[in-house]
Amino acid sequence: MKNQQEKQPSNEVSALELHEQICAIRYENLEKRLESGSARFVRMEYLIWGLYGVVITSGIFGAIS
Q1: Per-domain residue ranges for the chain?
Q2: What pLDDT digit, counting tens, does each position of 12-21 carry?
């Protein structure tokens, strides 16, 4: 009886296989979102470094004046 339950027709997709397919699509989308977020953080990092430059430069000019 156990063997009959384990056998499935070849054209049916098991619940586990369906879950794996859905998760593969989900992880692919997550990977895309992480890549786009990474690009955004690189841009923000450059803005922060620029801000450091402005603060240091204004501090130097403020001390000289």
Answers
A1: 13-64
A2: 678 889 999 9
